Amino acid sequence: MNRKFSFSQVVKGGIVVMMACLMAAPVALARTSKHPDTLVVATTYDAKTLDPCMTNDVASSNAMRQIYNTLVTIDDNGSIVNDLAEKVERVDGKTYRFTLKKGVKFHNGETLTSEDALYSLKRAFEKGASVRHIMGEIDPTGFKKVDDLTFEVKTKEAMSSFLAALTHFGGGVIVNKKAVESAGDDYGFKPVGTGPYKLVSWKKGDRMELERFEGFYGKKPEFAKMSLRVIPEASNRTIELESGDVDIAFEISSLDVSRVKAHKSLQLIELVDNATTYMGFNCSKAPYDNQKLRQAITMAINIPASVKAVFRGTGYPAAGPIAPNVKYANPDLQPSKADLKKAKALLAEAGYPNGLDTVLWTNAKKVRVDMATIIQAQLKKIGVNVKIQVLEWGAYLQGLKNNEHQLFIVGWTCQTPDPDMAVFPTFHSSQKGCNNFAHFGDADVDAVLDKARVTADGPERKALYFKAQDMLKEKAPWVFLANRKYAYGAQDYIEGFNPSPFGFHTLYKVKLKK
To answer: Where are the alpha helices (DSSP H) in 256-336?
Structure first.
């Protein structure tokens, strides 16, 4: 199988829209007449918070995409372009000068200034444990206000990935200083952005209601309101889509893809994204601090067969930590091959000739539970007895950060166009307790990642990331399971929905077909 995908293929060719039109079914008409001014979207998870520097989960980023703007952003071709910044200058290797757009308004009526921008970046640097991989490289002595619209920021080293990192909602979002200080600890539920929509109400676990911000500096959304509904069960999202109660449904399950494709009033949109689903080891705890044991467990899992059974054509066996569409992913890496004889020998060398008992965490996402069940059966063949524990999403993330786990299944999405975001936050020892859920630390890996993020793009940087991928396969803090092809459903009267491989989507560009 050819695993290599270019970014342009993902953005332009990797999105496949399949449409059909059947009977004069009044699904679209009933839907538009019932909620003509509201875009209703069925999401899979609820946001944790709408305070950008306090989280790094995709669900929160997706909601914040509609509410906030960043200094720079990613366009539909995957390029970094200005957003709130009118101009960006690299004064020297470590110094960036930003000039903000004039007259941009926050939802509370305040005008955006360089003071808000500096406040946002300083706050993220000081408080953002979840985004330490982005903001931790800022030089805290290098913040400088030039005038009301111009400011400078310095990094500790000449980072190649800094502007790419600022497209991330945990790094480049600009908040209003007055609003944050007024709300205090409640700010995550009282966000004030510059974006096209503002928050009206939020019923946790159920839905988030937004309304169009008439003072938005850019092109205003067509829909006056947006409703982000939380529907964790995939089959229920499909039912709501078929009934016309939602306009767009995220993550159509592999079981429902053909159903949506055949529906004459619906569109199916497929996208290969930048995520890697993996099973991680807690490398800070025995016996998972033993590399041979991690290698043994990896070798006992038949990854291609497992992915085929679980994802049913909507996933590909993963070969490494950087998803195939991300810059400097090594296309020559191959998924790990199962070898039970060698796995048992490695287990014995690790000191566990009779196997061991372990606990595997996952959340309620069906593909992860199914994968955990298959892994449980496969590991039993080498004497590793697995107890599966399914946790609620918020408790799951908190438990990972609190270092309470043994084995776990989750996914990581590279949410910027730079490979640094794929491997630094997840494997660098400085990120333990943040997004390095494996609590993995290795001085040699750290050295390669440190050098790669400050090396200019080109053959040397590519070689460093290829080396990092080889090292991580050998050291095995993760079992690389799958890269995903996600399916989204939409009503046939909807246009302008182009899902992003970065995991958060510009829903404010969606409109009704004329």
So the answer is: 257-262, 291-299, 303-311
